[in-house]
Specification:
heterodimer, A: about 220 residues, alpha+beta, Heat Shock Protein 90, 2 domains, five-stranded mixed β-sheet, two-stranded antiparallel sheet, B: about 120 residues, alpha/beta, Rossmann fold, two-stranded parallel ribbon, 5 helices
């Protein structure tokens, strides 16, 4: 069997990581609904034995099930939007909206790394023509680089800056971000993808705040 | 024969506390916690027959919790819960000393049967 081209393999790895994460969370939603459903069953059996639960208890459980269904629906929407981001290699991208979407996806990775992921977006929106999938991959890799060396503070911010001549996406950390290492495959990929996007990458990991900034074309 | 004492560990609070309530209704003594760190603290303070531990958690993950339990409290049987689609996470756990692994969502009857296979010698009455 022939090997996948390296560039495709790297994009597939990102696609796989995100879909695995979202589907894992979806399993938690289903598992929680499964427990509530089982509990209702248990309470029905207890009722048959003369120990009926209060209506308030049942309303409470039903409300929790509805909340999990809503959570599941949101996850599927995210998964679907993410899957469609590969449809067009060049598309009109609303930067703030795209960043919000990838940040929501990255929240789970931050949570697993016991960090918080904050956003700093300006009032306005900026539309550019770019590759939406690769843009999301760059943000994901930046967040991972920051998480890998997060220390005491564990507070990472994804920012959009529109006051510079070029729209800039920045990943900042309250802790230092490890120096860019060309031997690190994710660091190397981040730079490679930035070039692919026609963007300028600045890595100032020991500054305060530590920062990986991506100045996008126009 | 002593009454079964179980520790449930999962970072999904509604999942772990509801599962605990259902097991209590079946006669088990259950504690439920939402992190690996909390789990190890509880184990130092109380005796358990079985720990049911989610693999993917912030901080100490299920595999790390399993390793620490096996190193310090080898008599406790550990069953892992995995949200992974395949066997990989579970098989890693088996190599680390887990007694069994189950996929989420879990059927409570399967969980109880697995607990009995892992740590027989207890009663839920």
């Amino acid at each position: 069997m022939s090997e996948r081209p390296a560039a495709l393999a790297k994009k597939l790895a990102f696609f796989g990581a995100i879909t695995a994460s979202l589907s894992h969370e979806l399993k938690n939603v289903l598992a929680t609904i499964n427990e509530f459903s089982g509990l209702l069953d248990d309470l029905c059996q207890a009722a048959a034995g003369g120990k009926a639960p209060s209506p308030e208890r049942l309303v409470n459980i039903s409300g929790k099930i509805s909340k999990q269904v809503k959570r599941g629906e949101t996850l599927i929407q995210r998964l679907n939007r993410f899957a469609h981001s590969v449809d067009e290699p060049r598309a009109s991208v609303e930067l703030k909206e795209l960043l919000e979407r990838i940040c929501i996806i990255c929240d789970r990775f931050a949570k697993l790394g016991q960090a918080t992921l904050e956003r700093r977006f300006p009032e306005g929106e900026r539309e550019i023509t770019s590759d939406p999938f690769t843009l999301q991959q760059v943000v994901y890799l930046g967040v991972r680089a920051a998480l890998a060396t997060a220390g005491q503070q564990r507070r990472i911010t994804v920012a959009l800056e529109l006051d510079a001549p070029r729209p800039t996406i920045a990943i900042e950390s309250a802790d230092p971000i490890g120096p860019e290492d060309p031997e690190n495959t994710e660091h190397a990929l981040l730079r490679e993808l930035a070039t692919e996007l026609g963007a300028e990458l600045q890595w100032t990991g020991s500054a305060t705040p530590a920062r990986i900034a991506l100045a996008l074309p126009g | 024969m002593s009454r079964a004492r179980l520790l449930l560990v999962d970072d999904e609070p509604e999942l772990v506390f509801t599962m605990a309530e259902r097991l209590e209704l079946r006669g088990f003594e259950v504690d439920a916690v939402t992190s690996g760190e909390e789990a190890l603290k509880r184990i130092e303070e109380h005796d358990y027959h079985v720990a049911v531990v989610d693999v993917k958690m912030p901080g100490l993950d299920g595999h790390q919790v399993l390793e620490q339990i096996k190193a310090r409290f080898p008599d406790i049987s550990v069953i892992l819960l995995t949200g992974h689609g395949g066997d990989e996470e579970g098989e890693v756990g088996m190599r680390l000393g887990a007694c069994a692994y189950l996929f989420k969502p879990v059927n409570i009857a399967d969980l109880i049967e697995t607990m009995r296979e892992c740590a027989g010698g207890f009663s839920d009455e």
